[in-house]
Design brief:
About 40% of the residues lie in helices and about 20% in strands. By secondary structure, it is α+β, with helices and mostly antiparallel strands. It has two domains: about 200 residues, Endonuclease, Chain A (2-Layer Sandwich); about 210 residues, Endonuclease, Chain A, CATH 3.30.870.10. It is globular, with a radius of gyration of 22 Å. The two termini are about 35 Å apart.
Length: about 450
Amino acid sequence: MKIHNYHKQYLTKLLKIPQSFDKIKTLFSPTDFNKELIYSINKAKYRVYIVSLYFDCDSSGRLILDTLYKVKKNYYNIDIVIIVDLNRARRNRFGTNNTITNIDWYYYMAQINSGIEIPIYGVPISNKEYFGVFHLKGFIIDDKVIYSGININNIYLRKLNYYRYDRYKIIKNKLLADTLVYYIKQYLLAAKVINRLNNINSKKVTINGIYKLRKTLKKASYYYPGISNYNKLSIIPLVGLGKYSLLNKTVYHLIYSTKQKIILCTPYFNIPNILFNSIIDMLNLGITVEIIIGDKTANDFYVPKKNYNFHITHIIPYLYEINLRNIIIKLQNYINYGNLIIKIWKNKYNSFHIKGIWVDNKWYMLTSNNFNMRSWKLDLENALLIYDPQKLILKDSNIELSNINNHTKLIKHYNDIQTIDDYPKKIRNLINKIQKTNFDKIINFLI
């Protein structure tokens, strides 16, 4: 009990932004989210900030960028800013033959809309993607925060026959919106190493410049006049880079504050040791731990056999599944006992991008964090932690979880998970080779 109270006190002391119940809404599908995003952009009056890992040149990306240019043309003084990961913008999707990058498209759109300024910036969190990415998420439109883990393309916004499933929260709160924008201006737009991508005069990015940015971001946090010990519906914005970040610290305390049940959603199971050990501690206390994970076929790197064109990245879903099976072997006794619940999400060829934590029907974390080793140490991540002691949003939360669970399968034994022998020959051979050299351990840290 003393341990629980210690972690509860940490959460109690976090500065909270009061939130009106009638101004927070959950959406339950990518189609509804797409409509809300386009609608909100069209209605924008004084600012639109779009922050995403990538903003692709496909029909969804083109529609949103065209809409932004139209709004800017009608309201010349509106502040519109797009921020993406620099390294991701420089390349095309793995496995495609397209030679036109997103940066090429951004520049082309700036040229055909000459005189209408919409800056698109690239943030270099590292010199290579596998050493960390710009994983900040959220759209700020006037006083509205539209928070989701999505990136801008057809899959996330369901313009194809398949989709990538995420979480979608619409929050109207001026202080929260101002807080997120202040961080963007203070720590990203003011950084010397940030690059304007739709301008021919781009800067040369140096490793030293990236190092200085990372050093700054490791110390940076959201600044706002919040209220400690506030016991009503409220929101705590969190951001962080590096394993000692405020966001990581809060995830740790959130897990240990659980009294009855914690639900953790993540696209893949590759969690850092500190989180794994905290889950073990909760299980040993008899607390129910439910983990919902995407099936390997619901991973964004998975490629079905019928359109198989082998690329090294295609082994990633299989490595995650191997991790999962090995973990379940270690935790089988807890599954047998009944307080560990493992569910695998699979829905045809759709993919799973749900991330977050639910604790005791009182705390709800929406986050960009995959709860994997790279997110924990290398990526810039953010989150909104919702505190709801009066259970005002419990109904929406239950609907959201019910929709997620519609396509889950309960794992009762580690034999419910495939082994390497079940994998395609090329995948099997490559995994066997890298396991002999222990290179899979390095890969697991970077994915």
